[in-house]
Task: structure prediction
Amino acid sequence: MKKYRGVYLKNENELAKMRIANGMNSQILDALGEAVKPGISTMFLEEIVQEMCRTFKVKPAFQGYCGFPYALCCSVNETVVHGFPSKDKILKEGDIVSCDMGVCYEGFYADSARTFLVGEVSQEAKDLCRVTEECLHYGIAAARIGNTLYDISAAVQRHAEKHGYKVIRNFVGHGIGANLHEKPEVPNFVPMGGNDIPLQEGMVLAIEPMIAVGTYEVTILPDKWTANTKDGSLAAHFEHSVAIRSDGPEILSLSSNFSGGCR
Ligand code: MG
Ligand code: MG
Result:
């Protein structure tokens, strides 16, 4: 596999597999979006993921990854990422729930996330989710040849901070391909003294703004995974897997229910 500054560049064959993987991943996320309503448990969402993975004959990418016990990261309200699905966690009117998942198809990975609204939610929650999705769109629009990696980071950060929100620092986007996480890291902020690189055709990046209302600081719970905002404020998370193409970004995880906002 060809590399540029340590980053794998995918050929057409590999991109075709990633398109299929992400297509299935997006269908599963569509199903989660339809299932989300007040009164269901977050474990019910995990069960949907498990069942659809069996139907599609794909492996859930997260289960067992560094010991993560589930197929779905299900993060409610102040949980930023890596929430555990639970029978005891019942969604209620006004919650927001971030669903992040991946699958592996013929050795290639998909990764995408969306934050869903549970029934009628507050204006604060609506605004946060809208702006976080817009941050993703701005990031994707910057994912083109002629730009650098941190043009993506800057586009996300600028839009979030314009609205007074905070960009989570502890977690970042990433390259994706034959590995769930590969180089480069894709921060949602421009890091001091970071290692910026020009974007190249064939790079595939999981761009995933994680944005909070109050603080970018997180607390990791004793389960060693669940990451909550330190001040308990709401957080949202949207993610697409995006290929850098000669004619612009190609969103591999696009679905009719979840647009990319550009191209
Ligand atoms: Mg993800
Ligand atoms: Mg990711």
The chain has a mean pLDDT of 96. The two ends are 28 Å apart (CA to CA). The chain is about 25% helix and 25% strand. Residues 111, 174, 206, 208, 239 surround magnesium ion (ligand 2) (CB under 6 Å).
